[in-house]
Amino acid sequence: MKNSSNVFWYVFGGMFGFLVLGLLTDRLVAIGGSYGSTEFGNWAMWAGSGGTTFTLIFLIIQNISLRSKQDKADKKQEEMWQNQKENISIQKYQTHK
Fold it and tell me: In this predicted structure, what is the pLDDT of residue 56?
């Protein structure tokens, strides 16, 4: 029952989004120009450059986050190795006696 409900919302959302985007694009074109003019190309250029800029900003933020997580993991790994070295040296000392 829940699966069919999810499918319904996916289909409904897809149809609603398609209709809204279709109407929005139609209105923007009717107000500001047509597909044959250079203005429509300029809109596409600005939208593409904005999308690229936001994608790069997102990737920079994601890289900083991953780097800090990796630094924390490396620090924990170093601490674990240090503890293992101490345990090994203690075991060597005890077996040497």
Answer: 95
